[in-house]
Specification:
Helices cover 48% and strands 19% of the residues. It has helices at 9-20, 32-41, 60-69, 87-95, 108-123, 142-204, 212-237, 250-261, 285-301, 359-369, 394-398; strands spanning 2-5, 26-29, 48-52, 77-82, 100-103, 128-131, 134-137, 246-249, 269-273, 280-283, 308-316, 319-326, 373-378, 384-391. It has a 5-stranded parallel beta sheet, sandwiched between helices. Strands 9-11-12-14-13 form a 5-stranded mixed beta sheet, covered by helices on one side. The protein is elongated. The termini are far apart. The structure holds adenosine-5'-diphosphate. Adenosine-5'-diphosphate (ADP) binds at residues 298-299, 302, 326, 328-331, 339, 344-347, 355-361, 384. Adenosine-5'-diphosphate is lined by residues 298-299, 302, 326, 328-331, 339, 344-347, 355-361, 384.
């Protein structure tokens, strides 16, 4: 006989049916007191008691303690049913002397299996625990069981906290993406509007037709830069931005790159200070040009009142060092690391310069992919010096 103690009528009836499906005769009580009376009155004693925890009057823990405390009923298996899955509640079940527990809502086969193993536990000398269909004979004393249980539950709780943390990180990433999408839409809309407006005006005033190609080219380049940045960002995130270094003279790479960069900064003169000796490095020329383009266009963009940008290349120990100096707004000291982060834009609101906050992130990635370093310092009077260093190809430089 199995005794079911459950105060909710619907749940009690359901529980009776479910336990019967395990092949046992069942009798039930609606509260702790009557449940205990029933257990004591039955002859022979019931095989097991399944008791709810939260009940008016004597609660399930107390029912369990009294059954186990009375020599006449101590060998009745007790399974507590709890809605609470807190580690402390499971320990409460162990402390009360329960033989097993089951959380509500339960899966019927699991409940039956737990009742069965509880019955086996009290009837055999060697207590058994069943996990995932495997049986383990316990030779451990209850305090040890409590320890093991507490540890494993704490592990589970810890894993849950980690999950919650990574979910929060995912949410932040998602919010970043959303903010990013808004900025991209905004950044793409303004060149587009400039081109549409120019096309419309040119119908009424054909004399501006001459300026149209320049305007379309400038705005088109702006759109292309945004799309290039976005596609590089995605490729970096997927680990698919390839760098293919070959032996090159960095001085030559910089000289050629600057020729192509000049038209992109029409309001600034680029002063190049290049050594007469070659500096042999192993680089992907296109990627180094991309690094330089980002640094020089930034230098011009963030120095709207200046008319020059200086680029210097020199040897620095075992590295080749490139410096891009501007006479612009400068980078506040506490932002010197952060501006290389994805989406980070310093002094927003202070400047009207457009941007996504991706360029320096891509730039840093490219320099690191070459085994190099990158940073920014304040220039001596005003503005900033962005620098990067690439390891020299010693064998090539040492060769005659
Ligand atoms: P974007 O220019 O699109 O905002 P970047 O990643 O190229 O993105 O730069 C990140 C931020 O670093 C910029 O928003 C700007 O605040 C700052 N920055 C970059 N270059 C300079 C510079 N030469 N002088 C001052 N601030 C700069």
């Amino acid at each position: 006989m199995i005794v079911v103690i459950e105060d909710s009528t619907t749940q009690r009836l359901q529980l009776e049916r479910d336990v019967k499906s395990g092949g046992w005769p069942v009798t039930a009580a609606a509260d702790g007191e009557r449940g205990l009376e029933l257990v004591r009155s039955l002859d022979p004693a019931p095989l097991a008691v399944i008791t709810d925890v939260l009940m008016p009057g004597i609660d399930g823990w107390e029912v369990c303690r009294r059954i186990k405390g009375d020599p006449k009923t101590a060998s009745v298996a007790v399974v507590v049913l709890t809605e609470l899955a807190q580690p402390a509640d499971v320990l409460r079940a162990v402390v009360a002397g329960a033989d097993n527990y089951c959380t509500k809502p339960y899966v019927v086969p699991t409940l039956i299996q737990r009742v069965r193993s509880a019955i086996r536990l009290v009837s055999s000398g060697a207590p058994m625990v069943e996990v995932d269909g495997e049986s383990f004979a316990l030779r451990t004393e209850p305090p040890q069981i409590a320890h093991i249980l507490a540890s494993s539950l704490q592990d589970a709780a810890q894993r849950y906290r980690e999950l919650a943390k990574s979910r929060a990180a995912l949410q932040t990433a998602y919010a970043d993406r959303e903010a990013m999408t808004r900025v991209v839409v905004h950044e793409l809309r303004s060149p587009l509007q400039a081109m549409l407006a120019a096309a419309q005006i040119s119908r009424r005033r054909p004399e501006i037709l001459n300026d149209l190609p320049d305007l379309v080219e400038r705005q088109g380049q702006r759109v292309r830069r945004i799309l290039d940045d976005l596609s590089d960002l995605t490729r970096i995130e997927l680990g698919q931005l390839p760098v293919e270094p070959t032996p090159r003279d960095l001085v030559e790479v910089v000289r050629e790159a600057l020729e192509r960069i000049r038209p992109a900064v029409p309001d600034h003169r680029i002063e190049a200070h290049l050594p007469s000796e070659p500096l042999r490095v192993r680089v992907d020329g296109d990627r180094i040009e991309q690094v330089l383009t980002n640094l020089v266009t930034n230098a011009a963009k963030y120095s709207p009142d200046a008319d020059r940008v200086a680029v210097q290349v020199r040897r620095a120990g075992a590295s080749a060092r490139v410096e891009v100096r501007d006479w612009g707004i400068g980078v506040p000291p506490d932002h010197r690391d952060r501006i290389f982060e994805r989406y980070f834009r310093a002094r927003q609101g202070e400047t009207t310069a457009e941007g996504l906050g991706i360029g320096l992130f891509v730039t840093r990635h490219l320099v690191h992919a070459h085994g190099g370093r990158i940073g920014v310092e304040a220039a001596s009077d005003r503005g900033s010096v962005f620098w990067f260093e690439l390891p020299l190809d010693e064998a090539a430089n040492g060769a005659p």
